[in-house]
Amino acid sequence: MGDSDVSDRHPPLRAPLGPRDRGPDPRTLRTRAAVAEAATTLFLQRGYQDTGVDEIAALAKVSKRSIYNNYGDKESLFTELVLGFTSTAGEFADRLVTGLAEAADLPQALHELGRRHLRTVARPEVLRLRRLIILEAGRFPALAEEYYRSAPGRVMAALTEAFALLHARGALTAPNPRRAAEHFSYLVLGSTLDSFLFAPEADLPTPTELDRLADDGVTAFLAAYGG
Amino acid sequence: MGDSDVSDRHPPLRAPLGPRDRGPDPRTLRTRAAVAEAATTLFLQRGYQDTGVDEIAALAKVSKRSIYNNYGDKESLFTELVLGFTSTAGEFADRLVTGLAEAADLPQALHELGRRHLRTVARPEVLRLRRLIILEAGRFPALAEEYYRSAPGRVMAALTEAFALLHARGALTAPNPRRAAEHFSYLVLGSTLDSFLFAPEADLPTPTELDRLADDGVTAFLAAYGG
DNA sequence: CCTACCGATCGGTAGG
DNA sequence: CCTACCGATCGGTAGG
Fold first, then answer.
1. Which residues of A touch B152 (CB under 8 A)?
2. CB within 8 Å: A217 and B183
3. Domain for residue A6, yes or no?
4. Which domain holds residue A196?
5. Is A103 left (phi over 0), alpha (psi -120 to 50) or beta?
6. Per CA to C1' distance, which residue is closest to D13?
């Protein structure tokens, strides 16, 4: 099983497998996980600038040196964490709209989609991530663009495609399906997303209120675009 | 023309009128105006934290001491400037909806309102102010609340009132006029406000595109709520 | 005497 | 892994 020579002059900076193929050092994994959790908490709470590397180290109960060893520098740590959450959000976006164009009862399917979408987006950690990315869009423009394209953008693209099909079939009247997708999203999510940005500490709507908000948005959408 | 005694033992710290009623020292006014303009530019561009008092002083071509003499400290300077713009925005909000409930041609009046609203809100300085307040909502929660209540909140309140009247008169079907006002706002403004937060450096829609966005939003609103 | 303003520098804290 | 410390920069204030 060809162990690599310890004196190898070109070791990968972070080997995917350690010597004897034992996998990465479990201590490294523990440290990285502790740092990631602590940094996520603090970044989401206070933003990039107001979170100190010392604070992250203290909360994660690791040394500051371990953070730099595992993540390079503060910017890389931030970027790596945010990109991880962004790809999670992108996967959700793909699943959300699946099957819409084939639904037997379109109004019911849209109401369910609206409720599911708003419930997901109105979770504190999702709202805080969105807010964090907006706060740091000046410092990390590429990150903001990647998030926008992967999360809301992917939902918008999937809705656009579904609405185009439904329009062709006469189930909706949406000659501009892209615009219809935007209208659907802002009708359902608009006020919840907006309020949180201005009052991130305020109480979120209750689940009942969220369903009501989503239903009202979908009802207005169906009145405007319904077959 | 009663000159005040120069040896007066209780001079006001900053007299509204100087000796001989000549008015405030014009040098003071010039300095304050220069500081306000420079600070506004920089705060809107980089946010609170990333703007240094030294930078403001350099851009305004005054000494740092003059900033502290005129505005107390950095937080007060920021608050004073933002509150000034907030009250300006509030006055616009009041005028925007005036006369809507009495319009002879409601669809036309709503289309004009939508265009005017979006054109105003989509000005770079308005978008930047909104973004700045969101960025600093963690540090200045009272400021964010005041802005939210004075600007979007006042438009929403005025629209709600107008829609309630129009519903009573049968010109609209809006049994929940508050919700209708939210839907109107997000249909017209949603995508423009949202995109700017994630890409503050990107090009804004052209005036033609803005009118199209507004028209599409108002058309959807009328299809959903129209008499 | 006052107000406005200057050059110089303070203590404290950030990322690394 | 920790303490100590660096070069840089911040908001705020000193004397004149």
1. 194
2. yes
3. no
4. 79-225
5. beta
6. B65
